[in-house]
Amino acid sequence: MAEAGLEREVIDILSLIEKKQNFLLSGGAGSGKTYSLVSLLKKVSEKYPKVRIACITYTNAAALEIRDRCHIGNLYVSTIHDFLWDNIRQFQVELRKILCEIVNDPNGKIQNPLSDDEEEFQLLDDIQITYKEYTRILKGEISHDEVLIIAKKMFETYPKLCKIVCSKYPFIFVDEYQDTSPLVIEILLESLQKVVEPSIVGFFGDSMQSIYDEGIGDIENYIKTGRVTKIEKKQNRRNPQKVIELANKLRTDGLMQQASDDANAPNMENGVIKKGSVKFLYGNDLKMAYSSEFMKDWNFENSKQTKELRLTHTLIAGEAHFEELYNIYDSDPVLKLKKDLKAYVKKKQIEIEEDKTFDEVLNEIEWFYQKGKNTGKSHLEVFLDDPSNEKLYSHVKDLPYSVVSKFYWEKDQLIDDKIEKDGKIIRDAKRDALIAHLFRIQDIIALYISSNYRDLLRKIGRKIQRNSDKRELHDELESLRLISQKSIGEVIDFANEKSLCVKSDAFNSFIEKNEYLYWRVSAVPYSVFQNLYSYIEGRRPFSTQHKVKGLEYENVLVILDSSGWNKYNFDYVLDDSIYDSLPKGKKESYKRIKRRTEKLLYVCCTRAKENLVLYYPEPSSGVIQGMERLIGKDNCVNLGLV
Fold it and tell me: How far is 518 from 514, CA to CA, in rounded Å?
């Protein structure tokens, strides 16, 4: 079955398909797994033109990329959740039955929405189960998590459903399988395989690049029992030799990558793999790392060439100087107080008079700390002990409880980014109306600064008919450009008054419903938002370590700082002595955190196409020794001694 131009791994997979065997294509970073997937989809479509092929993946962006690269008529591409929902949505009677069974099961993973847990949950026959962005079980509305739970139960319970899906999709390929829920793997490799003519299931991905807790990580048990045949793709087309060597030491699954034998691969030069560089710098001053000889030629102004990776947006917000806005969206004290209050009210089944003020409700209910240093104090009393909370509370205390109880916002509404492909936006950012309005204002300023007058006039909807119009617009835009030291509220009002960025119905509606949030945000200096804009638009070198999965840069700086973050710990990866010093009860937790951190570090390091620097502020001697074992003593530099 070998054909010219096809990769060896694709030829091997085609052979497995002929034998009706399930398979896994496992490839490390930069191995070209998506290229192999697309090649395989085209060949399978060509060989079996009358059957439908399903290709499912973790994100909408990945689904769009595959669809754009294939152009295959008999190919169905979607996210995993959409695929499952599309195949169960029509069976409403069964969906209602299964949902009720799960809710009423004490071990079920969907919470009973009834206040009395003893009461049996039932749904009326006229209620349709619908898939939403939110969950309201009483109305039959389910979201992402419930779709997976219900789908697994549906496929377990109804063999006919399995038969329908296998008949409809003889081939089901799963991209980025390592981020796929174990529930989905069980549907594909347990329930569907009981059919007389089961679907052939193929997985593509890399267990070392699973950086989400809900991912399955690997499918080794199915490989050991022969239900899945594993094919390794060992080539690396992205990283230089030094980075490959480090990456291979970080891998824990036995797959050892090697430079591609393709002379035209990005990591090859004149037929020889680039050497590259890997350095470990440490010291208590990051500025010394920036100014060291190892990064002296790095262009931090070019974010497409150079990237600085940190663990969280919280750590970046301070460095990129938009923490004042970030803190409002991520950790507003009133929002937390409201959330904790609602949880307490629900737990105690307290009836609240919705028209009473927020302050009246807080003062009337018995809500006291039961343990710790605040034992005996009310939650409101402790909240107001912090002087910075007094002004915030005074703004909401007289609002109806019904208004405050609906307060909701989250950091993703601030920092979510659009997805672009080949210069085209394939998914808009999911920002709230306020932040979206601010982005429009800053887009106008950016167009003015870059002298892109054609797009500028189109964006503001202004026509220039005489020189006086041009002068007037110039003066207004210049004033807008120079207003950055004013507050966000003042900039919004100025842009609206000058008809440069008019307040839309969506904006006004959002402000009306979120007056407290607007009150807080509008007081922040506009320059803080401009810093956020530069970060989101990729004009700053910062990024989170999770966000760059799948991307690549010439120079990569990784900040090894996991302080204040209990899900990751770089010390666990680098200092082998820690495990022996832990009490027996903490060893399992250590192993989970170490595995999770190893994968994150692997993803970070393999972004580098030329140079990689890892910086640790104040490492222990065990961490230093660990890095020396990984990259050599000569490549570990104490900045305090330079």
Answer: 6
What pLDDT is stored for residue 67 in this prediction?
85
**Cβ pair 462, 473 in contact under 8 A:** yes
The backbone torsions φ and ψ at residue 459, rounded to the nearest 5 degrees and listed phi first, read -70, -40
- Amino acid symbol at 283: G
Q: What is the pLDDT of residues 377-422, one digit of tens each?
A: 999 999 999 999 999 999 999 999 999 998 989 887 887 765 554 4
* 265 backbone φψ class: left, alpha, beta (φ>0; ψ -120 to 50): beta
Q: What are the counts of helices (DSSP H) followed by strands (DSSP E) for the chain? A: 30, 20
Q: Examine the pLDDT at 265 and tell me if it is beyond 70.
A: yes
Distant-in-sequence contacts of 493-496, Cβ < 8 A, 24+ apart: 495/441, 495/444
Q: Nearest CA to 524 among 556, 558, 553, 484?
A: 484
pTM of structure: 0.73
pLDDT at 525 over 60: yes
CA of residue 77 relative to chain centroid, distance: 20
Q: In angstroms, rounded to a whole number, what is the distance separating the alpha carbons of residues 146 and 135?
A: 8
Q: Bridge partners of 613?
A: 279, 557
For residues 149 and 224, give the distance between their C-alpha atoms in angstroms, rounded to a whole number: 26
The C-alpha atoms of residue 371 and residue 368 are separated, in whole angstroms, by: 9
Cα-based distances in Å from 437 to 143, 286, 425, 432: 28, 35, 18, 9
Q: How confident is the model at residue 59 (pLDDT cuts 50, 70, 90)?
A: confident
Provide the pLDDT for residue 118.
Answer: 63
Q: Residue 66 is inside which H or E element, if any?
A: helix 60-70
Please check whether residue 239 is in contact with residue 247, taking contact to mean a CB–CB distance below 8 angstroms.
yes
**What's residue 60's pLDDT?**
74
